[in-house]
Amino acid sequence: MDTKEIAQHYLGWEFFRNSAWHFPLGLTDGIVYPYLESVVYSDCVPLFALIFKAASPVLPQNFQYFGLYALLCFMAQGGVAGLIIKRFSKNIWITMLCACFYISSTIMMWRLFIHFSLCAHFIILICIYLCLTRKTSFIQWSAVMAAAALIHIYFIPMVAVFIVFNVIDEFCENRKIIQPALKLSVPAAVTLAVMYAIGCFYSNAPKIEGGLTYYNANLNTLINPREISSVLPKLPYVSIGQYEGIAYMGLGMLFCAAVCIALFLIKRKFSFNRVFILTAGLIAVFLLLALSNEITLGDKTIFTYPIPAKVEHYWSMFRATGRMIWPVFYVIMTVVFVYLIKNMNKKIIIFVLIIALSVQFFDLYNFYSHHVSSQISEYKTPLSLQKWDEISNNRSHIVFLGSAEDTCQIAKFALDNGMTVNDMYLARKNRALIEENKQRELELIKTGQAREDTVYIFTQPPEKYYDGLDIFVLDGYIIGVTS
């Protein structure tokens, strides 16, 4: 479990809950004081944060919605998966067994305790469902895009690609322009409006440079169990950052894929039609995005290809490119189940799915049990609270004069005591603005104008002991307060 990420999510929610209402609605005060920052960049699911902030007066003092959000994600995952399978089979047992594979998705479980807001894989399944229905409206796609923006912005490009392919499919069928044009333009406008309303553009938080080829997916990702499988050995990979592209399908799902291949070789039943071409194209586009411009297989880089600086600039906005493998994971899973349903007897399908599901859970049992049980823990602050209470008495602000990336426990203390912090670990923030403010605070200290209402925390021991400022070490932190 990445405790820093979980702390970021929780603190982001609590600071937002305790903030006054602003417009845009997602702005948080006190987290990069004296500035405002969007709740989007603490990755605490803006949709839920807005709902529960509005309901805050009737909620208990200690409250978080993360477990509820995760539960709803799993419920929605199973529900939408059932709708997808029901389009091809009315048999309840086939539907339920197939849905179990979607619910037990390794990539969804992996995210549950690492960037939990990225558990909303039902958004991808909704896109698959809408593409299967084919006759869709711009209202439906606008709703999906709005949901993506309100949950996590990494779902936005995924939904956008599905929309493009749905538009291509519709245009090839009826050769009309207006409806496809509305499907492209209206969801885009809705997405920008929603992003503006929750403050995505407020602070001009710059994108983080680099990482485009570090957080990509590996060509072996669908069959590479890493540390997930109880049966198969892990395969090599190029960089640690490729954990963003983990997409191991599970031994049971690979068994189903093998059965499909066997059926194809036996029956030679295959239809090279528009649906096949569009599905193959969809997989290819997402695979290209996930691999980035550095194609790797195992621990080898096969080749790289240059991309224009402008393309790299905008592509790097979603630098964790490995996440784009998720739609490939679910599209392939859906294709496998549909092929089985169309080419096998119902009783045989049920038998195959029971065997495959048993193999799947046997293969992933250690991963599920360890991944869940190891997260059960109680937070205990490492701070000497009595001493911190003494030094923060009648003070309102904590100012970090250096890095604030690993100081979530200080931010928690500030939160519990109604204090602000000038910096905190966030997904994105206006670092230049924050650093300018730190320099101003440092100049005040150097000129003997340290604020009486502020606790200063230095990353490195100051070069000299400034006039009027008592400097000491507490719990490993270098503290400065006025005499």
Molecular structure report:
With 483 residues, this protein is an alpha/beta fold. It has two domains: 3-64 and 379-482, no CATH class; 67-133 and 206-373, no CATH class. It has 17 helices and nine strands. The protein has helices spanning 3-18, 46-54, 66-86, 92-103, 106-111, 122-133, 138-151, 155-174, 178-197, 251-267, 274-291, 309-315, 325-343, 346-373, 385-392, 408-416, 431-446, and strands at residues 27-32, 35-38, 294-297, 300-304, 397-401, 420-421, 454-458, 469-474, 477-482. The longest helix has 28 residues, at 346-373. The chain is elongated. The model has no long low-confidence stretch (mean pLDDT 91).
Please give a handful of descriptors for the protein shown.
17 helices, 483 residues, alpha/beta, 5-stranded mixed β-sheet, two-stranded antiparallel sheet
Sketch the major β-sheet.
Answer: 5 strands, mixed
Order of helix and strand elements from N to C terminus: HEEHHHHHHHHHHEEHHHHEHEHEEE
Average pLDDT across residues? 91
Low-confidence stretches: none
What is the domain total for the residues? 2
Query: Helical element count?
Result: 17
Overall morphology:
elongated
Proportion of beta-strand residues: 5-15%
**What is the number of beta strands?**
9
Strand order of the largest sheet: 6-5-7-9-8
Distance from first to last alpha carbon? 41 Å
Quaternary structure annotation: single chain
Structural class: alpha/beta
Radius of gyration: 25 Å
Q: Share of helix among residues?
A: 40-55%
